[in-house]
Design brief:
The protein has about 300 residues and is an alpha+beta fold. The protein folds into 3 domains: about 10-45; about 80-200 and about 250-305, no CATH class; about 205-245. It is built from 10 helices and 7 strands. Strand 1 and strand 2 form a beta hairpin. Helix 1 packs across helix 2 and helix 4 (about 135-155) packs across helix 7. The termini are far apart.
Length: about 300
């Protein structure tokens, strides 16, 4: 075999050449070449091992990701509403940081060059934050779903004659303006309207069982006494009272960036509390907000003052 077609030495052969060169003193040219090649291989192995160690350290420092389908703690207990400062377009987010990919999915085609091709964060500002409270993530996700459905219907299901007579571009501009519609939709959903709205507090199963037992006992007594008509009338009266009785609703807290936005709605139910200023969200094991932290700090200060006064 010619010198040009000579096979390259393996790593084991290079290590062997390094050992032989060390034993013989490395006088030959071939020994020096093999020694330098072996040293380079050793440096490469050390570099690779260092890179692997750095990669493992970075993986250990990185935050743990939740598997797909598994929701993090406190998911849905609060959500944020963002609006475009120029067009008043509205998007909803379950995280305090606006996710660009998820926000773009909420856009409907309202006209040519009216749907933003990309989201610039300097054009989007928080409009409100809706908070349901700890342990009410299911209710918050229900409100979030209802608001997104109503937004889509505003964009695609409209029969206003004035909009039909407008030019396409002006019609798209008005359809993109969802600021007032969001406030009206929020008041509607917080009032418990809509099929499957979880803002309405569910009745306990124990109360249902007790009512069934009481009805059965009344029916038995009525059959014995022959008073079926009287019991039917009582049942009808109870059903009418239930229909007329206002449902019990979960409490909802709305933090507004601008207090004047809440007046887009005609009325609000008593279960909604309005607070001016959107608190800074502090992620952590208990997922507290600045408002709750301030309240806890005030409570601690009061307890300390009472302790000093009693002492």
């Amino acid at each position: 075999m010619s010198h040009s077609m000579r096979a390259r030495p393996t790593l084991f052969q290079m290590f062997g050449g390094l050992v032989r060169a060390a034993q013989t003193g490395g006088c030959g040219c071939g020994g020096r070449v093999e020694a330098t090649a072996a040293a380079a291989a050793v440096r490469g192995v050390r570099f690779m091992s260092g890179a692997v160690e750095e990669a493992t350290e970075e993986q250990s420092r990185a935050p743990q990701r939740h598997p797909r389908g598994q929701q993090p703690a406190g998911h849905g207990e609060r959500f944020w509403v963002w609006h475009h400062i120029a067009t008043n377009m509205v998007v909803y987010s379950l995280t305090p940081v606006l996710d660009i990919n998820k926000a773009k999915r909420q856009f409907a085609f309202t006209g040519k060059k009216l749907v933003p091709a990309k989201i610039r964060k300097d054009y989007w500002r928080p409009l409100a934050m809706v908070e349901l409270g700890a342990g009410k993530g299911e209710v918050g996700r229900s409100v979030y779903q209802k608001l997104r459905e109503l937004k889509k219907r505003h964009e695609l299901e409209w029969e206003d004659e004035r909009l039909l007579n407008l030019p396409k571009k002006l019609r798209g501009i008005e359809l993109n303006d969802m600021r007032g519609n969001f406030v009206a939709d929020l008041a509607y959903v917080c009032a418990g309207h809509g099929k499957g709205n979880l803002v309405v507090v569910k009745e306990e199963e124990d109360s249902k069982v007790k009512k069934k037992k009481s009805k059965n006992s009344k029916v038995v007594q009525a059959n014995q006494a022959g008073e079926n008509k009287a019991i039917e009338q009582e049942q009808q009266q109870q059903e009418e009272e239930k229909a007329n009785k206002a449902p019990k609703l979960h409490t909802v807290t709305v933090y507004w960036a601008n207090e004047q936005d809440k007046y887009y709605a005609e009325s609000w139910t008593d279960n909604v509390t309005h607070i001016v200023g959107i608190p800074d969200y502090l992620p952590g094991p208990k997922t507290k907000t600045m408002a709750t932290l301030n309240l806890s700090a005030e409570a601690d200060a009061r307890s300390q003052a009472e302790a000093v006064a009693t002492a």
